[in-house]
Amino acid sequence: MSFMKLITACAMALAIAAPSAHAAPKKAAKPAATQGEPESSVSGRTATNYACELGNKITIYSNADDGNSIVMRWKNRLHRLTREATSTGAARFENKIAGLIWIGIPAKGMLLDSKVNRQLANECKTSDQALGL
Questions:
Q1: What is d(CA 9, CA 123) in angstroms, rounded to the nearest whole number?
Q2: Which residues, listed in sequence order, are joined to residue 111 by a DSSP beta bridge?
Q3: CB burial of residue 31 (10 Å; 0-12, 13-18, 19+)
């Protein structure tokens, strides 16, 4: 294949693969729930913000009338987690569909991924916890 034919073939492939300049721009996707999980509502819930190591941020939405579930915002997605019993007294909430586990102790919280057995966020602290209150 000659050099000119190669350049022409590459240019044609790029023209086909590149989006048209006349195409309408795509709208930003709305933060969605995990596949198979409906988007959770946070109306009427109290938000608690956590700053975690590596710049991660988590918001927990809780309702004083419902201690059995929370809604968590993680990576621009809302997830409903339900309380799981523990023998240690730690607050443990889980969403089995998404594989998320939130463990809260008085000093900090951590988010785990049960599907791949790894930490997603650690040293998550509210502003009061960061001050040692």
A1: 53
A2: 102, 121
A3: exposed
With a threshold of 0.70, does the pTM exceed it?
no
Task: Please provide the average confidence, as pLDDT, over all residues in the chain.
Answer: 81
Q: From 128, 84, 51, 38, select the one nearest 60 (Cα to Cα).
A: 51
- Residue 82: name the closest of 99, 69, 66, 72 by CA: 69
Q: Residue written as tokens 């795509």?
A: 26
| Segment (H or E) for 16 | helix 3-17
Q: How many CA atoms lie within 13 A of 78 on its CB side?
A: 16
- Quick: pLDDT tens for 29-54: 444 444 445 555 788 889 999 999 99
Share of the chain above pLDDT 70, in %: 70
Is the C-alpha dihedral spanning 105, 109, 114, 119 positive or negative? Answer: negative
Sheet of strand 57-63, all strands in order from the earlier edge strand to the far edge: 46-51, 57-63, 66-74, 77-84, 91-95, 100-105, 108-113, 118-124
Say if CB 85 and CB 53 are below 8 A apart. Answer: no
